[in-house]
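User: Can you predict the 3D structure of Thiol-disulfide isomerase or thioredoxin? Sequence below.
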Amino acid sequence: MRSSYPRTRPGGRPAARLAVAATLAGTLLAASACAVGPTAAQPAAEVAVPIATSSPLSAGPTPTGAPTATGAPAPVPDALRFTAKTLDGTAFSAAALAGRPVVLWFWAPWCATCASQAWTVAEIAPKYRDTVPIVGVAGLGEQKAMRSFVTEFELGGTTQIDDRAGALWRRFEVVEQSTFLIIDRDGKVVHQGFLDGEDLTRRVAALAG
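Assistant: Sure. Here are the predicted structure tokens for Thiol-disulfide isomerase or thioredoxin:
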């Protein structure tokens, strides 16, 4: 069975094939066009672990953001008070992104919509790496499939969190994919939902200002 997402990248660059299991059709139909949330049955290994906002920060090291123009670290908003592991096993702290707008992209490796948007993310993320970081949050799939997705769509230059257990999906109340969650430089969530490639590019460019 062939996947339904484009097999060529905008501009004519060829995309490698993604293997799709024969049972995918039933899964996608049940998912109602990719509208699926995380379930308790997913593996719990190497998942994002949110820092509860009600917990005293004195219980551990106080997270700090990137230095501001004055040299002082930027305050860390509640939205960025979480840690995680990336798909390659690297520790990740969202606090390091404080003081800048941030885009969290919630995707699943079998989602055709996510696959079609991956090209845009792969193209614009390196350009805005230092001004508007784009961080992928992979869920609803197996780690091997997630890693294959990153390889096939050339997303290796962007941070991709392994959220197989759905900790961050639940934290931000994400119920479908592909979902983009945009946090402004003050830590306020200013968008949560679908964005096509053109809208995503326009919004990121505006945030980079």
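The chain has one domain: 8-208. The first helix runs from residue 24 to 30.
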